[in-house]
Amino acid sequence: MRRKTAILISGRGSNMAALIEAAGDPDYPARIALVISNRPDAAGLDIARGHGVKTRIIDHRRFETRETFEAEVDKALETAGVDLVCLAGFMRLLTESFVKRWHDRLINIHPSLLPAFRGVDTHARALAAGVKISGCTVHFVRPEMDSGPIIAQAAVAVLPGDTEDALAARVLAAEHRIYPLALRLVASGRARAVGEQVVIDGCVGEGAPLFSPPVE
Ligand code: GRF
Q1: Per CATH, is 1-102 categorized as 3.40.50.170?
Q2: Could you give the residue numbers annotated as active site?
Q3: How far is the CA of 172 from the centre of ligand 1 (A)?
């Protein structure tokens, strides 16, 4: 049974598009049933509609509190029979009670190798810190911002002369690969949180090191 999944966005929606495209495969274990945007002008809304995915705008500015906004989001998720929720560039902090209600069914993508560089402006901060490798992380959401058991990560090299935009583009390409992978693992039941860690059934590997700069 394909698990009914919603994606919450606030803007461009390129990660959302990657998830929708992956879920276009009938063998993919999740089906994207709904896209919700808290911003009426989010470019991702048109992309979702173009794929025939149902969309809802729930403008947070119409609500006096975070709780009333989230109650409306919850109602929309429930009405659509949603079982899993993916945050994809969703720029609202969620309350502890919302996060707990969706415990282990709410996942997020963040453009850094967590736990490094939580919060915003990750690429500028990675460049300022002089790290040689950055990347992205998909994780189960916990109440503390950008924290929770890690499902998948991808590393990318920080190259000499990188600008924030150049690094962001390189990381984004990796995001588009790991988010569909992570959702596949969660929706199929292969990945599950055990304490602070995620256990993935049948995952064995050599653990090849990734060097940056490449070792001569
Ligand atoms: C991505 O970099 C994501 O990791 C971060 O916000 C950005 C959203 O981009 N949380 P998009 O809307 O998916 O194109």
Answers
A1: yes
A2: 110
A3: 7
